[in-house]
Amino acid sequence: MFKRSTWLHLRIPFSFFLLPVFLFALAISPNINVSRIIIVFISLHFFLYPASNGFNSYFDKDEKSIGGLKHPPKVTKGLYYTALFFDFIAIVLGLMISWEFAIMLFVYGLVSKAYSHPAVRIKKYPWLSWFIAGFFQGTFTFLMAYMGLNAFDFMVFGQWHVVFPGLLTSMILWGSYPMTQIYQHEEDVKRGDITLSYRLGLRGTFYFTAFSFSIGAAMFFYYFLEYHQEKYAWHFILSMAPVVLYFGYWYLRVHKDASKADYSHTMRLNTVSALCLNIFFIWFFLDSSQVLQALKAGY
């Protein structure tokens, strides 16, 4: 547990790329409570996600670059036990809010293990892994965070005004997911993992992402118009402009030189995308009426 390689494979900073889902759930939460915000944030980003990263790394045993780790060291048995321990801590923290939230954390952990464990290894099925990764990192996590932030129960699954924005997060992830695999074709195939990006090919991955991202952005625009204010819809589109520009720039480079479909460009796209989304959702949260109401009412 105390080995440097173990902490590197947990990839805690990588949680930054999944932060927009939490921030979006926070921004539309009607019951703002500081202690719940802290507990949900820590349980997800410092324990649940790193546990998933570590567990995945342990069974993949990657020799080349992976998300958030350009030169992954060899894994040890300690990584496996640390990942399980981090899962346990996440669930214990979840129980501080509610048993329902703790169950959601537990289910997420099970699915993340099934994704990489050799007994199931969802990762080797291109379309199934694409759907499950996008759904659980998006819709499921959004609902989980919303439940924890507001101390709600499973009734949120039947509330369209909560499920719909959750599905929007999945739309963005379904679009971006193949791009995270674009530089790993050789190593994935070596392990027998036929990823969606490999099936689509380099150019096909770019076309698929462009199409999916466009649909997702249009649905976000509609959501903000329908449920909030027009200014949020336009600000969202504006906040995505740097992502589109870098995506187009990268596509042109890959079009000329296939070797540019590499780790460095992938991580830059992820960073630009996460940064833009995080800034937008923080602004949306601070500008929203829910925050003002919470400040007036106190904690």
Q: Report the sheet with the most strands, covering strand number, pairing sense and barrel closure.
A: none
Supply Rg. 19 Å
In the predicted model, the low-confidence regions spanning at least 5 consecutive residues are none
Percentage of residues assigned to helices: over 70%
Cα-to-Cα separation, first versus last residue: 38 Å
**What is the N-to-C order of secondary-structure elements (H for helix, E for strand)?**
HHHHHHHHHHHHH
- How large is the count of helical segments? 13
Number of strands: 0
Average pLDDT for all residues: 90
What class, by secondary structure content? mainly alpha
Shape category: globular
β-strand percent reads under 5%
Task: Provide structural commentary.
By secondary structure, the chain is mostly helical. The protein has 13 helices and no strands. The chain is globular, with a radius of gyration of 19 Å.
List keywords for this structure.
299 residues, 0% strand, globular
Provide a brief overview of the structure.
The protein has 299 residues and is an all-alpha fold. 74% of the residues lie in helices and 0% in strands. The protein has helices at residues 4-10, 19-27, 34-60, 77-95, 99-116, 126-150, 160-176, 185-191, 196-227, 230-239, 241-256, 263-287, 289-297.
